[in-house]
Structure formats: structure tokens, C-alpha cells
Write a structure and sequence with these properties.
The strands form two sheets. This protein has a four-stranded mixed beta sheet with strand order 1-3-6-5, with no helix packed on it. Strands 2-8-7-4 form a four-stranded mixed beta sheet, with no helix packed on it. It has one helix at residues 2-23; strands at 45-46, 54-57, 62-69, 75-81, 85-94, 106-114, 118-128, 138-146. The chain is built from one helix and eight strands. With 147 residues, the protein is mainly beta. Helices cover 15% and strands 41% of the residues.
């Protein structure tokens, strides 16, 4: 019985060492993430400060929409785009976290193309997807005039 317990203890020790070695593998810092494909920020950059404004683009041009976000809280931007706008890329970049801190915010970035002429809209709401909308949420609205 004693040999069996020793064997189990040795196996558990080996498993713990292997697990710990796997946890120490170096990974890329979230603040250094790059877009998922070759599309990068181009043209005009639109932020929360531009909410309520109107921008003008030619058909086929694109712009970057960059909004602050902290997905560690469960909240994220939920965007609705009119049919004349198309998302080319969509990614999140976390700000560098101070030593020992987690849950820091970052930027959610969308590369959006003006695909069809006319007055196009982007409406966004920042909330936890499972929560009811109360009207107290942060919102974003942009009109895109495509010529």
C-alpha cells in the first residue's frame, strides 16, 4: 500500500511540474496585439469624441473607428451599421497592465469601408450583452455621407 501511495505522489509531482512548465511559456503581451489580417488603420480615425458628427467619404474609401473598451467587465461595444458600410477588420488591443493589475481597458478598433453611396449610419451601445438596455448606457452615433 505504501509503494502505491509513493507512486501516486511521484506521478502527481511530475504532473504538477509539467503543468507549471506549460504555464510559464512566454506569450505575447496583450498590449502588443496586432490586427487579425493585413488591414491596418488607414485614413481618418474616428473616436468617441466624434460621436454625433457627420463625416464624408468617397465610395470605396475606408476609415478607422476606435472606441475605448474593457471586456474584462463583460461590457463591449455593440455596433449596428447601415447596409452601405462594411467592416473590413475588427480587433481589440489591451493597454499595458501595471505590475500585478488585471482588467485594464484598451481599444476596440474597426476598419470600415464606405461600400455604397448615400447617408449611412453607425449606432453603438456599450453594455454587457446579457443586461437589459436602461438608457443609461454609453452610446455612439456617426453619420457617414458616402459620395
Amino acid at each position: 500500500m505504501s509503494k502505491i501511495l509513493k507512486a501516486i505522489a511521484v506521478l502527481l509531482l511530475i504532473a504538477a511540474v509539467l503543468f507549471a512548465a506549460g504555464c510559464t511559456e512566454k506569450t505575447e503581451t496583450p498590449g502588443n496585439e496586432t490586427p487579425g489580417n493585413e488591414t491596418t488603420e488607414t485614413g481618418m480615425v474616428v473616436t468617441e469624441a466624434d460621436s454625433g458628427k457627420t463625416v464624408s467619404l468617397k465610395k470605396g474609401e475606408n476609415f478607422t473607428l476606435k472606441l475605448r473598451e474593457n471586456p474584462s467587465t463583460g461590457a463591449s461595444w455593440q455596433l449596428n451599421l447601415s447596409e452601405g458600410l462594411s467592416i473590413l477588420d475588427d480587433y481589440y488591443t489591451q493597454d499595458p497592465a501595471p505590475e500585478g493589475e488585471v482588467g485594464v481597458p484598451g481599444n476596440h478598433t474597426w476598419i470600415i469601408e464606405a461600400a455604397a453611396p448615400g447617408s449611412q449610419q453607425i449606432d453603438g451601445i456599450y453594455k454587457q450583452s446579457w443586461m437589459n438596455t436602461t438608457g443609461e448606457e454609453e452610446t455612439f452615433k456617426l453619420t457617414v455621407e458616402v459620395v
